[in-house]
Amino acid sequence: MALIPRYFIDDLLARTDIVDLIDGYVPLKKAGRNHQACCPFHNEKSPSFTVSQDKQFYHCFGCGANGNAISFLMEYDKLEFVEAIEDLAQRLSLEVPTEDGKALAKPAFSKAEIASDHDLMEQVTRFFRHQLKHHANGKKVIEYIKGRGLSGEIVQQYGVGYAPSEWDGALKAFGTNPQLYQQLQDLKITTVSEKGKVFDFFRDRLMFPIRNRRGKVIGFGGRVMAADQQPKYLNSPETRIFHKGTELYGLHEAKQFDDKISQVLVVEGYMDVVALAQNGIRYAVAALGTATTPEHLQMLFRTVKKVTFCYDGDRAGKEAAWRALENGLPHLKDGVELTFAFLPDGEDPDTLVQKEGKEAFEQRMSEAKTFSQFFFERLLQTIDTSTDAGKAALIGTAKPMIEQIPSEFYREVLLKNMAPKIGKTVEDMDKLFADPRALAPVNKPKSIKLTPMRRAIGLLIQQPSLAHTIPLNSSYENIDMPGFALLFNIQHTILGMTTPTTAQLIELYRGKKEGEYISRLAAWDHLVEDEELMVDEFKSTIRFIEDEYLTHRAEQLLSKAKTGQMSPAERKEYQMLVMALDQRKKQG
């Protein structure tokens, strides 16, 4: 595979303003020389995510996330390295070259193809909405919708439509040329039988367009209207723009209604979401024909502080809730709430909210089981804690689950509730669980011991212009002292660049063994704001390192002299070192 030239990556980073880039995803506020926001990579109450315009670098002091513009796109949009480069290049209307001089080979699906997919899905959405009003079955479908208590306004807001009963309604409407004919199959608007016949994937169903977080239609959910039809819900299969495990139906609409949404109610069906919205509960979402995934929970806790799972009270509902609890463990941070509501037999959110009304339904949701209640209720269904074996079984089952939780609060609550169940005190539980309250939160950045060498490298990474303040000493490259070779390499690299930035230097070491080390030093707060003071600090640090090396080397040679192993060349080197050290002492 052809590689992207280093000069192009450097130029791309030089042209990209990381503040403008990140502000398009996470609103930033000016804070001194930097910009701040609550971290988009973990849930927090107060901002610890800092973006430096000078360094073109971001860093979270809470979870340790850091990097440049490329890193941000890779982490936030889950892009591969080349995809992130292409994204930045497209924003600047640049073509990505390769080292063989050719344009970068196209990925499996280009940005233009994806944009075309979204456009076609929007057209199909309008087609289904048109069919709802104008198809021969339209009146019957509208009567069904009214019978479910839905108004024309809510149907319009959620873009609900109707897939015609004919085998080729969408195919005839859109498959007008070979390209569109294939695109319909790729997006699973049409499908192919074993005999090779192409026909509509959705037929005679109430259609719910599924939108991603940016409002683009990426798939559909189709619901039957006759009680004897199966399956009840038919969902778009996975496509290049639709991934069930990372999207939630109704989240876009909920945020459109209230961009400061504070809680989310997770239900099972599309009709539940729309029916709840009809009754004034505008914060319901549904998983897309799959169990709630860790990605769903991570996305939700980035968006809201409270998530309530509302499922049937039968065995299947309890199983679904338990899977959601398990997937939520690594995302339970301080300040977020996870609760579980189970409905009476034979009821679902759609029917219940129409019977009870908004106030009674929300009151029921407010009485949902807490995380801790459901956690122990579930475990104690199969574990008898009246015996020693049962107590040991509870500890053995709960311990690895509790240790996944980053929240100190949740760990304390679980241990406090668990203690009396096994005849222990809270102090006993702390010891038994290796005092989880003292455990470092998940992803807490590792501390770094700041030696003079690391200080010099950190200053150089954060302020590349310092490379010009001391002479380039080629002997550093071969000096047998940790960090000297890296210091020389960074200085040499900077002197070969036109306008080097911290972001470019970080990118240079991406994937290399020094990469994480460099990123952590780039985030280190050196507390020196004045540029002249920084130059003095850098020079004095380099001088200290040089003195350390010269002294160490002189001691090595002196040791050899005492054992009679010093060569004539080494004797000469020793004499020069002594003279150099004396001279440096005189210079102060």
Question: How would you describe this protein?
Answer:
The protein is of the alpha+beta class. It has four domains: 6-107, DNA Primase, Chain A (Alpha-Beta Complex); 110-242, Alpha-Beta Complex (DNA primase DNAg catalytic core, N-terminal domain), CATH 3.90.980; 380-438, Pheromone ER-1 (Up-down Bundle), CATH 1.20.50; 452-587, DNAb Helicase, Chain A (Orthogonal Bundle). It has 24 helices and 17 strands. A six-stranded mixed β-sheet has the order 12-14-13-15-16-17, with helices on both faces. A five-stranded antiparallel β-sheet has the order 1-2-3-4-5, sandwiched between helices. Helix 13 (315-328) links the parallel strand 15 and strand 16. Helix 1 (6-15) runs antiparallel to helix 21 (502-508) and helix 19 (452-462) packs parallel to helix 20 (484-495). It starts with 5 loop residues before the first helix and ends with a helix.
Write down the Rg.
31 Å
What is the assigned CATH homologous superfamily of the largest domain?
DNAb Helicase, Chain A
Helix percent band? 40-55%
Straight-line distance between termini: 55 Å
What's the level 1 CATH class of the largest domain? Answer: Mainly Alpha
Beta-strand portion reads 5-15%
Total strand segments: 17
Largest sheet: 6 strands, mixed
Uncertain parts? 435-445
For this structure, the CATH topology of the largest domain is DNAb Helicase, Chain A
Q: What is this structure's SSE topology?
A:
Blueprint: H1 6-15, H2 18-23, E1 29-31, E2 34-37, E3 49-52, E4 57-60, E5 66-67, H3 69-76, H4 81-91, H5 111-134, H6 138-147, H7 152-157, E6 161-163, H8 169-174, H9 178-186, E7 190-192, E8 198-200, E9 205-211, E10 217-223, E11 233-235, E12 248-249, H10 251-257, E13 263-267, H11 270-278, E14 284-287, H12 294-303, E15 306-312, H13 315-328, E16 337-343, H14 349-366, E17 369-370, H15 371-379, H16 388-402, H17 408-418, H18 426-432, H19 452-462, H20 484-495, H21 502-508, H22 515-523, H23 531-562, H24 568-587
Parallel strand pairs: 13-14, 13-15, 15-16
Antiparallel strand pairs: 1-2, 2-3, 3-4, 4-5, 6-9, 7-8, 9-10, 10-11, 12-14, 16-17
Helix pairs in contact: 1-21, 3-4, 5-6, 11-14, 19-20, 19-22, 19-23, 21-22, 23-24
